[in-house]
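stage 2 :: seqdesign
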């Protein structure tokens, strides 16, 4: 068999048969048919909408538009009519789709896209319906996302509805200032402010959105204040804001049920020992899992155990690690946290000395710089950020394990001491959980702990939480969906791959699926509704591997490995700004 390919045709020779095929005939034929239609020649059907008429060829319409294919090939009454009245579609939209049948083109803009989507749905043109949805997705903004979401729901466009809902959650504060938001009915507003997925810096932003909505029409809407305020998570608001703003708001002050909700929030702060009994949906932090961040792995160890200044950054969308600008100091076993979009590398060990130095990285300018040093040298410490401050907890100063805790105020560039932990903890897991700094496990040089304690920065005191089922040091901890996760570590005899989770509602720890690898000195971060276990030591080898946990399926999956690091990293997440 011989084949020769010409510019737009193919000749195939098979024994004594020669087949010539003009490959571009359909491309040439349709424009000619469109030209014939525009001359009004050979047309065999007229479509009428109101007083507008469009002539066309049945065979072309049937070949391109499913609605007409069904009409003209299934012996429907219209298949024999010369003129067909069309209902449920605008004249300009029908004209656009008749033209599309011949040239495959549809022009859409902000003025016609919704009409085109309705028409595409009517004519069963799924590909155009999806193109209209993509057009609207790309143009979501705070002033239109609620309207687009309702429209998508009406048109049964589930993907567009989901995209608009995610946009609403990501940009809730901006959306709450829009006319669309302030014009919602109470029934439309309630599920929005009840969502766990709102992206807010503080619950007071939800409160202000509710107040703005009520004040749009106070005579009719003020009666709904108790029902709406019950959806605002008042216990998560700072006490000073509860006192200075919430309690002085007239809509709250003049409503008995609202004052009861305010008292509940104040009790939550005043009596931390009773928080287990006060747990409810109002005490569960919101978490917008659609906000994706870049995971930074900082410092750590080489395969020979040397400290590194190297920094790598992981993009979970591309599943790719890349090197970032290194720190000025070598740091292993340091504390790492993020505050206001900037990465803090705190203390650690440089191979010779324990460090009290601190440096900060800003990804916008791609620069590291030193800030004030801590009061104590600390390696194997934990770090977390809360309410505009950075906390450095415990660690080892070269002599003993520490129970001291320091707090950094970036506005004044100063570290100051706060209340000591109940236990001296080195190699503990530190994170923010339930609005408090939480210290999990660790050791004091003699004993490895299963105990857990949390710091109430309003009262300045540490309180014990229920202990883990397993004692762990060098573990990873993170908060996800309002629950506290502890993974891996070392129990004194075994390097662990087990993972347990603490539920504040029932005040209990329970095991979930173990990691695929045993990991001591593991860094654990939450990102986009998943957990990432980064690096570690399995008892024989420093690890550059990374696993991702999906709580929906209770499974761990391998993702891309780090390129440079081989365990012992500190890690944190810098969120990407929502578009």
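stage 2 :: out
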């Amino acid at each position: 068999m011989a084949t020769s390919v010409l510019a737009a045709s193919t000749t195939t020779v098979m024994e004594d048969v020669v087949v010539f095929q003009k490959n571009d005939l359909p491309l040439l034929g349709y424009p000619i048919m469109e030209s014939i239609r525009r001359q009004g020649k050979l047309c065999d059907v007229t479509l009428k909408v109101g007083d507008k008429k469009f002539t066309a060829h049945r065979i072309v319409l049937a070949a391109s538009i499913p609605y007409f294919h069904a009409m003209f090939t299934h012996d429907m009454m219209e298949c024999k009519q010369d003129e067909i009245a069309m209902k449920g579609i605008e004249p300009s939209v029908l004209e656009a789709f008749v033209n599309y049948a011949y040239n495959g083109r549809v022009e859409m803009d902000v003025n016609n896209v919704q009409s085109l989507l309705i028409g595409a749905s009517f004519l069963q043109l799924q590909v155009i319906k999806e193109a209209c949805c993509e057009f609207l997705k790309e143009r979501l903004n705070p002033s239109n996302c609620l309207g687009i979401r309702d429209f998508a729901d009406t048109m049964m466009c589930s993907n567009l509805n989901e995209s608009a809902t995610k946009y609403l959650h990501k940009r809730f504060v901006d959306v709450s200032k829009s006319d669309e938001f302030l014009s919602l009915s109470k029934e439309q507003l309630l599920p929005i402010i009840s969502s766990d997925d709102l992206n807010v810096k503080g619950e007071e932003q939800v409160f202000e959105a509710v107040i703005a909505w009520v004040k749009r029409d106070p005579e009719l809407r003020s009666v709904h204040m108790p029902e709406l305020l019950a959806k605002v998570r008042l216990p998560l608001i700072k006490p000073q804001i509860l006192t200075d703003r919430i309690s002085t708001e007239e809509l709250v002050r003049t409503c008995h049920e609202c004052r009861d909700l305010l008292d509940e929030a104040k009790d939550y702060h005043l009596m931390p020992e009773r928080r287990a009994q006060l747990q409810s949906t109002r005490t569960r932090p919101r978490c917008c899992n659609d906000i994706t961040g870049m995971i930074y792995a900082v410092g750590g160890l080489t395969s020979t155990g040397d400290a590194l200044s190297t920094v790598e950054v992981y993009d979970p969308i591309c599943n790719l690690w890349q090197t970032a600008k290194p720190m000025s100091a070598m740091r292993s076993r340091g504390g790492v946290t993020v505050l206001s979009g900037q990465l803090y590398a705190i203390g650690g060990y440089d191979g010779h000395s324990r460090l009290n130095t601190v440096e900060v990285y800003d990804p916008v300018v791609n620069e590291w710089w030193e800030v004030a040093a801590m009061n104590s040298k600390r390696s194997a410490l934990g770090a977390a950020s809360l309410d505009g401050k950075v906390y450095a907890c415990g660690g080892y100063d070269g002599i003993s394990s520490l129970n001291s805790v320091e707090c950094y105020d970036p506005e004044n560039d100063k570290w100051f001491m706060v209340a000591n932990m109940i236990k001296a903890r080195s190699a503990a897991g530190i994170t923010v959980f339930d609005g408090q700094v939480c210290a999990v496990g660790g050791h004091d040089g003699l004993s490895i702990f299963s105990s857990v304690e949390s710091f109430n920065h309003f009262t300045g005191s540490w309180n014990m939480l229920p202990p883990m089922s397993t004692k762990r040091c060098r573990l990873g901890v993170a908060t996800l969906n309002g629950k506290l996760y502890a993974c891996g570590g070392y129990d004194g005899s075994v390097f662990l791959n087990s993972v347990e989770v603490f539920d504040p509602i029932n005040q209990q720890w329970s095991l979930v699926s173990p990691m695929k690898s045993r990991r001591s000195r593991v860094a654990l971060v939450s990102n986009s509704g998943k957990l990432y276990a980064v690096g570690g030591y399995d008892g024989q080898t420093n690890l550059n591997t990374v696993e991702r946990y999906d709580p929906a399926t209770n499974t761990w999956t391998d993702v891309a490995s780090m390129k440079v690091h081989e365990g012992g990293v500190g890690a944190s997440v810098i969120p990407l700004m929502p578009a």
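stage 3 :: structure notes
- The chain has three domains: 23-139, 184-283, 293-575.
- Residues 184-283 form a domain with the Serine Threonine Protein Phosphatase 5, Tetratricopeptide repeat fold (CATH 1.25.40.420).
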